[in-house]
Every structure is written in structure tokens, then in C-alpha cells.
Amino acid sequence: MVLAELGVVAGFSVSILLFWSPLLAVTRLRELFRWPTNWLVVNYLCIGGGITTIQSLSYLGVILLTAGTDTVTGSDAVGIVGGVIVSNIVLPAVISLAALRMLPERGYWTPTGDGLNGYIALGIGVIWYGVIASVGFVLIGLALMFANLPM
Fold first, then answer.
1. Are 87 and 124 in contact (CB under 8 A)?
2. Which of 77, 79, 130, 134 would staple 66 via disulfide (CB 3.0–4.6 Å)?
3. pLDDT truncated to tens, each residue of the chain (151 aa)?
4. Positions of E strands within the chain
């Protein structure tokens, strides 16, 4: 049974990374993935996988804080969805602020340069991440709900 849940989390993570990847066309965002190796794809998968893992753990925290281990009621579901949407914006924003603080000091990223300003690009990236993660969470939740309806 645990493998099925891990498969759902892995599918969720892969879909987020897939739908966020077009933003790598923006030079300032692509430059964020220059660390820890020299390969963009490896860095994107490692960093993105880490972020989506933390995001999935935050969902577990929201669910446990809202409903505990009891059966989820209608009001619990509203609280869970609201908490997840807040988590989808707050967590990437905090990670982005940490990146803004650490990466320029170490010479890995500069917010200025050719093309779109790095701060604007990062803001767009955080908002887009929040949108695709929220939509993905709701779609997976609906699919699981319909799959578990009594026959």
C-alpha cells in the first residue's frame, strides 16, 4: 500500500517539475540552477526534487494539523485545501528568499543582467509554482476521491 502512495507523490513531483520547466527559458531563472554541479538537468532534478519532497511533507503536516488521524469531514477538507494553497505559496517564497540571500553572496546568481530582471522572474516562478502545485493537489485529491467512492 505504501508503494501506491509513494507513486502518487512521485507522479505529483514529476508533474510539477515538468510544468515548471518552461520557465527555465528565462536566463535569470536558469542561472539559479548552476549549483551544486555544472549540469542544469541534474541540478534541476535535485533541487526541484528536494523542494517537491519538502512540499509533500508540508501537505502531510497540514492534513495532520487539520484533521488529525480521524476521518476527514467536509469542513476538514476545506481547511486542508486552504492550508495546502497557503503552503504552495509560502514554502516556495521562503526558499526563494533564502536563495536571494545566499546565492548572490557566493557568486552563483545575479538578479541583474540581460533579459528579465531576476527578482521579477523569481516572483513569476514562485507564483507559477503555487498555481501548478495547487491545481495538481486538487486534481489528485479529486481523482483519489472518485476512485474510492463505493460501488
1. no
2. 79
3. 578 878 888 999 999 999 999 999 998 888 888 878 889 999 999 999 999 999 999 998 998 888 877 777 878 888 888 999 999 999 999 999 998 888 888 777 777 776 778 889 999 999 999 999 999 988 988 888 888 888 7
4. none
C-alpha cell of residue 57: 511533507
User: What region, left, alpha or beta, does residue 113 occupy, with left being phi > 0 and alpha being psi -120 to 50 degrees?
Assistant: left
Three-state DSSP class for residue 5: helix
DSSP state of 107: T
Amino acid at 114: D
Alpha-carbon distance of 35 to 44, in angstroms, equals 9
* Total number of domains constituting the chain: 1
Domain that holds residue 75: 2-147
And the C-alpha cell for 123?
A: 516572483
Query: Cell 486552504 sits at which residue?
Result: 82
